[in-house]
Amino acid sequence: MTLAGTLAQLCRAAMSSLGRELAAWKPSRERATFGTEAMLSVALSVALANALHLSDTWWAAISGFAVMQTSLSGSVQRAVHRIMGTLIGAALGTIVGPLIGDRPWLFVPALGAIGGVAVYYANGSRAAYAWVLGGVTALMVTYEAHRLVSVRSTASFAALRVAEVTVGTLACLLVASVFHFGPRWYRKNRPPSVSATARAAGKSSAPSTSDPAPPLESGHSTRMLLGVQGALAIVILAALTYILHLPGFAQAMVTAIAVLILPTGLPADRTRQPVMEKMVQRVAGCLLAGALAVALLPLMQGQAILCVLTLSVGVWTGCHVQTGREGASYVGRQFTIAFIMVFVQDHHWSADPLPALMRLSGILTGIVALAGVMLATSRLHMPSASNEVSR
User: What is the DSSP letter of 268?
Assistant: First the structure.
């Protein structure tokens, strides 16, 4: 099948899955609870970030959503990985960025190397999320260093990035803890009725949103291929941005890395299909959220209460689709992230859609760059490591 035919098929599959999910709208107690937790986490993240006068409130809001899992233990593990990765990436970017920021012949390849290493180790590591956040943060801080020039300004930017992630992560943990320990405290102090006990015993388990922990050993050739593709895509994006000052570079980098994180066990020549599926679903979710949010923004007129209510409905809806079983989970997750990106703009509420459109354009730019790299490397074969277990 041709590339165009494959893309068309994947687009139809994504829209069909989303249609089935919306048609089978069943807000079970578990799914509704997860959506409510994520909704409150995002709202609290925004409130705290605004109270602390952080510059990029939307980063805190995305952290508040991205860390939330269906279990407290899952949220805690993800929070540790997010903060740990962000701290390491910020430190690396602060050290390396000012040294090479004014040397494009070093700067561009260095960004590619950082992205490639992050993708390689994220595929096959139990701390995959930490590798992704470390790579993204290092890329972001290193890139900003070439604009900020001084070490002090770069360190300030990195510190703000860490603060935004920490605020959103702590907000998420607070909400998750309340929903985890609150019912236990209530049951302890007010025992449930017999009928309530029966209902609790018979309820189904909530769909998991946690990323499955891959084994530490994964196919070397597969990881190498994905790492090379990520590195080349970021090199292209960095070079274009350095020369043409393209907007949305941060989101382009995030996209180039995020869609290359795949389940383990895939042979190196079978990675294109799952990556393309993630690309198509990421674009579908972002375009749907972008179109809806941009249409709603003027109606909100920058009113804080209206913006928070609309944001909450969007987050809850995206979470409902994410926890469904019709194959549209990644569409729902990307819809939620894009909806947050559009509505939560910097450090104040605004009806201006331009900043959000710039971020969305970065996602599309990252997809286009990665698609070109995948097409160019479709016949590339990586040597297997000598110690790789044969299958």
Answer: G
